[in-house]
Please model this.
Amino acid sequence: MALTAASASQLTDADGRVDLVDRAALTDSSYANEELLPTKLADRKWTTYNYAALWMGMAHNIPATCWRPGWSRWAWTGCRRS
Model:
């Protein structure tokens, strides 16, 4: 894994993934915690398949969550009652 310094605060991997050098600015914030911080580059396990599967699942779930009995086909598009 070849990392190049894109700036003083981040490193960029050969495939374009970015990792932070200094996480202190984020960890000192009252609006962030370990659960919300970006995943470290070494800990990232998702591949293209994972992102494609997530996208397909979310894309096909939109009509199912918007459709309600009595709603017209036009109401689905904006999830509004006609």
